[in-house]
Specification:
Elements lengths: L2 E10 L6 H10 L12 E12 L2 E12 L6 H8 L4 E7 L4 H18 L4 E6 L11 H10 L4 E3 L8 H14 L17 H16 L3 H15 L8 H16 L4 H16 L4
Parallel strand pairs: 1-3, 1-4, 4-5, 5-6
Antiparallel strand pairs: 2-3
Helix pairs in contact: 6-7, 6-8, 6-9, 7-8, 8-9
The structure holds guanosine-3'-monophosphate-5'-diphosphate (G3D) and magnesium ion (MG).
């Protein structure tokens, strides 16, 4: 028999980062260019079918779209009650919106809901010319909260399905995040943390489905002979080259180079 589950999910982030647009894209697969002010909260239901440990699960998400003004602390606290997970959304053209996730939304949510699964989203990835935030900044905040991140666009739909599925899988797995204090400082990374960042980055950007990306990642790691329990810096650099080769098959030269530079940024943060 199919497993059925219902979970409450919150979409959090400052005003106009694209929360409502993401819900619309995910639920109706359409993008409304007219701005709709969110009054308080709005709940939308979405059924997902996820394969987890070889079994089909029918996961119903109750999506809570919560108003962005930080002055409404009371409404926010009330809305966080009983939530099983959250998407924390920032706008990559406005750096302060990432600061708010780190300084306000994630900590306020944690106070009420504890270490529930989170997924960080850098929305408006279609506006790359105006971007003031990249994978590097987003990954630092996501790492600090022991969570994955995705660059998404509610306008084009890029990675929207992936992001919700990633959260769905963490909910099914019953993921408990490490507390923030135990998470890596943003200043330096261990080689394991760097490798972790690179793997997540590759899977989020490959664009051919998460499972396919993971399988390819395993293949390339084997080819390089990387030891995941104690990855060496030179092996990680070799892996980055192999991943660029994989990217080059689907992506333009500029895109492949950009992704490679972003992955190298993780290695640059390894001490020594
Ligand atoms: P909110 O619910 O977080 O407050 P909205 O944000 O979903 O209302 O979106 C705020 C504005 O950003 C809207 O613009 C919306 O069209 C735009 N937007 C949302 N997501 C994207 C995206 O991925 N790419 C682009 N280019 N724009 C996006 P308007 O002008 O209608 O106010
Ligand atoms: Mg809204």
């Amino acid at each position: 028999m199919e497993r059925k589950l219902v979970k409450k999910i919150c979409l959090l982030g400052d005003n106009a980062v694209g929360k409502t647009s993401l819900v619309k894209k995910f639920v109706f697969d359409s993008f409304d260019d007219k701005y709709i002010a969110t009054i308080g909260t709005k709940t939308t239901k979405k059924e997902m079918r996820i394969t987890y440990m070889g079994k089909d699960v029918n996961l119903t998400l109750m999506l809570w779209d919560i108003l962005g003004q930080k002055e409404y602390r009371g409404i926010h606290k009330m809305s966080f009650e009983g939530t099983s997970g959250a998407l924390l959304v920032c706008d990559i053209t406005r750096p302060d919106t990432l600061g708010s996730l780190e300084g306000y939304w994630a900590p306020e949510l944690e106070k009420v809901a504890g270490n529930i699964p989170l997924v960080f989203l850098g929305n408006k990835s279609d506006l790359s010319d105006l971007a003031k935030l990249g994978v590097r900044e987003l990954s630092e905040v996501a790492f600090a909260f022991d969570s994955p991140f995705y660059m998404v666009s509610a306008k084009t739909g890029t990675n929207v399905e992936h992001a919700f599925t990633a959260l769905g899988l963490d909910l099914l797995a019953g993921k408990i995040r490490s507390p923030k204090s135990a998470a890596p400082s943003s200043a330096t990374l261990t080689t394991r943390q760097a490798l972790d960042g690179i793997i997540v980055h590759f899977c989020a950007n490959y664009g051919q489905g998460q499972e396919f990306a993971m399988a390819l990642m395993r293949k390339q790691s084997d080819a390089v002979g990387i030891d995941i329990t104690n990855p060496r810096r030179d092996k990680i650099l070799h892996l980055i080259d192999k991943l660029a080769e994989a990217d080059a098959e689907f992506k333009s030269r500029e895109e492949t180079t950009r992704l490679k530079v972003e992955r190298r940024a993780f290695v640059e943060k390894v001490q020594g």
